[in-house]
Amino acid sequence: MFSVVFGAVRARAAQALMVFILAALPAAAAAAAPWYGLAVGSRVAGAAVTAAPATQKVLLASAQGTTNGDPQRALSDFAARVHAVLPMAGAEPVLGLKQPMLLSRGRGLGNLSGFGAAYRQDFCAHVRLAGTCPAAAGEAVISSDVARRIPLKTGEQFSVRASAASEPVSFRITGIYTPADPAGAYWTDQLFTANGQLDPFFTTLDTFAQPQFSAPVLSYDLPVPAPLLRGDDGYRLGDVLAAALPRLRAQQITLAHQTAPLLAAIRAGRATIQRGILGALAQVLVLGWFAIGLAGRYTSRERRGDAGLLKLRGNTRLSMLRLALGQHLVPLLAGALAGLPLGFFAAWALAGRLPVPAEILPAALLSVAAVTIVLLGGLAVLAIVDAAALRLPVAALLRRVAGRRRGWRSDVVDLALVAVAAFAVYQAHVSGPETGLAVAAPALVALAVALVLARFLRWFADRAGGVAVRRGRLRFGLTAIQVSRQTGTDRVFALIVVAVAMFAVAAGGFVAGRAGRADRSEVQLGATRVLWVQAGTRTELEYAVRRADPTGERAMAVVVDQSSNPPVLAVDSSRLAAVARWRPEYGSLGALTKAAADARLPAALPLVTGSRLVLRVTSTRDVPSPLYLNLQNEATGAGVQVAFKGVAKGEQTISAPVNGCSAGPGCRLVRWQLTTPPGPDGEPAPGTLTVQGLTQQDPPATILDGPQLADVTRWYSDFTGLAVKVTATGRGLTMAADNRADSAPGDKVYAVDAPLPLPIVLAGPPSADWRFDDALSYRFGPGPTPVRVAGTASVLPVLGRAGVLVDLDMTRRLAADAELGGVFQVWLAPGAPASVVDDLRAAGLTVTGEDTTAAFTERLAGQADVVGSRFGLLTAAIALLLAAAMVAVAAAVERGQYTEQLRALRIQGLPRRSAVVAGWAGTAGLVTAGLIAGLIAAAVAVPVAAVVSPPFADGWRVLPPPDPLTLGPLAAAGLIALLALGLAAWLSVRPLLRRLRGAGR
After folding, report:
1. Helix orientation angle between 489-525 and 441-470, rounded to the nearest 10 degrees
2. Cβ atoms of 627 and 644 closer than 8 Å
3. What is the 8-class DSSP label of residue 713?
4. Which of the ends of the chain has fewer CB neighbours closer than 10 A, N or C?
């Protein structure tokens, strides 16, 4: 039997080679799937781990303990207890102690306040320290916030005590610390942060040997290694924690963690990858088995002759089937073996990496199993084809002329496939494109289109060929007749159409996904490069950026406030055009600058740079009352209040010192603050204060004179409540409180140096609190601020579909010394040199992080749907190669018989040129028709099957998804398909053309 099988394979080497190729291609796809799935599954999980906040990656164990004079042993024993219950390979815990203490603040600052004493391993490596690290008991470092609030300085001492009645313990400050990475894993434990009190001070471990520090909270902070979070080698962190929690609770150890969202995201990502890979693999396997079966049908002619002879000799049908399957098994097995390394290298190239070491063996075993399924499936398909042929009588088996082309069974199969395609389309529209058969809806729609067009092609070739031959147009006629009469032409045509459509849809989705990721990175970042910075105030941020980039072409100060409702994006609009990546969805680029220009603000007042202010004022009050002037430093944003005390009745000149305005550019005038003391009768004293002039000393300068004080457009009071009554005349600026018994009077008069109402660009619906044109916002100052919509946008950078875009300079002037919050950023223009970051640091900003659109896009490319679609593109390319190989099979099988027919026609007078054209035109026509029909099927499948570009795993849908199949990708896919199919067709007809050209005239 074996010698007969190998002899048959050698005798039909060309047929065996074709089956080998058709088996190797789906085997390569099957072999690649496990390698690729495990590699990118680990990559996607790693990307989720990287993107997750540090709080989701740290386990925090704590317990109340005692040191008994030996804090090191207490920590070691506690760590051993936790490790025994919760062992984790590769994890390095951070141990710490925290003792609640009280600080006797003194200095008129109030009573005792919570001020914990803390120790943590490697503390000084995780802070920026102005000074030295504590080295002995009695030494400590305090946070910059504590140093500012108490205040304390390096070298000074402070005392703490365990309770109000206990003895104090003194510490000398050796340094002031700021967390180097506040969002990092080291600072996730709130035990070592303020939590509404003062930040703890950090000292040495020896301090906790003292009796006052003998009852600390012991902490065991465990950053979970990335492999364990990813779930490498089947590790399940959730199950481990579920088992450890009751055991730790029994030992009175508290375990806090927030890993659930991260673990859920990792599981969802892996499931998405599995669905995408399995869906794409199933489609290419079905096409591969169909191509193998079709090749078996094409090559069965010679085997049917062998079967007929064996039947005449009395062989049973089972023995003949074993012989036929033996001939198939050799090329199928060789193709499967060749597919194993091909799939491995394809997956490696596509994923850019191999699975983690622990998953190498599972990937290899799954790869072998998948290829085995391909082998068995191909063998089963060929067995079915041969079994159907062996049922024929001997006369039919020995006949060289094919029987009738189609039967009712083929029609039923075609109708069933069209029905399945219709159901898949329905499911895609109702349940989504990732449910059930909807995954294969584009390919099924293409198949339905192919079946309809195949019938039309066969009918048209049959009719047109006969007409052309009768009219003497032999080239076209012979070509059409070849297409019409060749067995299996409609199936080859359908395979070409489906393969081309799959490749076009996959290529279109790949291109659309890249465009969508680039668009999202532009919207979410706002600029090509974004820096996260630290600054004391918005004013300090803006001043530093303008000083680092005086031309306004490289950098722009930005504040993002996502906590407000609606969110607010404040930008230095004078630099917006040069720095930001502006999109049409953002509305008019110049809306804010035009609104500011149209406002026609009064000329800016001189900045205060002196050490003393001199005020000329007239009071009509019977009792002396102070008048306050609030300034703001234009470099730091710090508020400076100047108190003119004891303003008596009548006209007078009063001077007051100014601190904090002589350095830098100086201070701008923000507001007057009026006080109303009680009169002799206990009621608020009536009367007015009239400011007639304001000058400064050292250096001397006039800040306010008569015309400025008399300009009513330069001053405004509160917009709600009982506002100060303001009158601007030639006598000066007159202010009077509106005293009523039922409400508190207003006390502020502001200098106008920003447009009011504040112009904004609005995305999304206006606030429900706005009534007609009376729009107020509480996000731009200490009180309500009137706003007006200067422009609208469907989308705003960073904020998305709902938010407000405002000018940073306008808002920081309106807010003055009020704290508005927000995240400080600096946006850099495309092509900004690296030196601009150094310039920003030199200007006083601390850069804490940065991002670019390129890096953001690359991170998005690691999401599960994206990496899954890449495998879909690979399987679509393999499907295209299957179609090309099937074209070669069809041409090669018919070559001998068609050569004999054309030679016979040549003897009857057919010109050689007509014979040569007829020799290649049939295959070329089939390929061309299939290519065009495939592109049409792709264009039809995209809207009918509800195909969309790969969605984002986190559900981001601010911008509409790009068209999944535009003209560019469609044309490129058509060109690639033409090259693959055309090359296969040309190679397959070359031997025929050689024979025809060499056959003489």
Report:
1. 140
2. yes
3. G
4. C
Q: Return d(Cα 193, Cα 216) in angstroms, integer.
A: 15
Written as six digits, the tokens of 284 are 């290419």
**DSSP output for 973-999:** HHHHHHHHHHHHHHHHHHHHHHHHHTT
d(CA 286, CA 292): 10
Phi, psi of 180 (to 5 degrees): -70, -35
Token couple for 79: 């760590």
Burial of 982: CB neighbours in 10 Å, binned 0-12, 13-18, 19+: middle
Structure tokens at 721: 């409540």
pLDDT in tens, 525-561: 999 999 999 887 889 999 999 999 999 899 999 999 8
Q: Greatest CA span in the chain, whole angstroms? A: 137
- Structure token pair of residue 240: 């481990």
- H helix runs in 150-216, sequence order: none
Q: Where are the domains of the chain?
A: 1-59+73-88+230-400, 92-223, 536-601+756-844, 612-751
> Which of 493, 215, 352 has its CA nearest to residue 858?
352
Distance CA 897, CA 882 (A): 24
Which element (helix H / strand E) includes 513?
Answer: helix 489-525
Cα–chain center distance at 70: 50
pLDDT tens sequence across 56-77 = 999 999 999 999 889 999 999 9
Sequence-separated (6 or more) residues with CB below 8 Å from residue 230: 42, 45, 46, 49, 266, 356
**How many Cα atoms within 13 Å fall on the side-chain side of residue 167?**
5
Angle made by CA atoms 86, 87, 93, in degrees to the nearest 5: 90
Q: Which residues of 497-523 are buried (b: 16+ CB within 10 A; e: fewer)?
A: bbbbbbbbbbbbbbbbbbebbbbbbbb
The angle subtended at Cα 314 by Cα 311 and Cα 318, nearest 5°, is 70
Which residue carries 């009695």 as its tokens? Answer: 138
CB neighbourhood size of 643 (10 A): 14
- In tens, the pLDDT along 342-377 reads 999 999 998 888 887 878 888 999 999 999 999 888
Residue with structure tokens 């306008």?
Answer: 810
Specify the pTM. Answer: 0.77
Cα distances from 860 to residues 33, 53, 349, 355, 897, in angstroms, run 22, 17, 19, 20, 55
Looking up tokens 């990475």 gives: 181
**Residue 884 pLDDT more than 60?**
yes
Whether the CB-CB separation of 353 and 43 falls below 8 Å is answered with: yes
Mean pLDDT of 596-606: 84
Task: Give tens-digit pLDDT for 239-298.
Answer: 899 999 999 999 999 999 888 888 888 888 888 888 888 888 888 888 888 888 887 776
Task: Give the CA-trace dihedral at 425, 430, 432, 433, to 10 degrees.
Answer: 0
CA–CA distance, 218 with 95 (Å, rounded to integer): 8
Q: Would you put residue 552 in left (φ > 0), alpha (ψ -120 to 50) or beta?
A: left
**Omega cis (within 30) before 757:** yes
Q: State how beta strands 758-763 and 785-793 pair.
A: parallel
**Which uninterrupted H or E stretch holds 544?**
helix 538-548
Any idea how long the chain is? 1001
Do 548 and 555 touch, CB atoms closer than 8 A?
Answer: yes
Structural element, H or E, at residue 758: strand 758-763
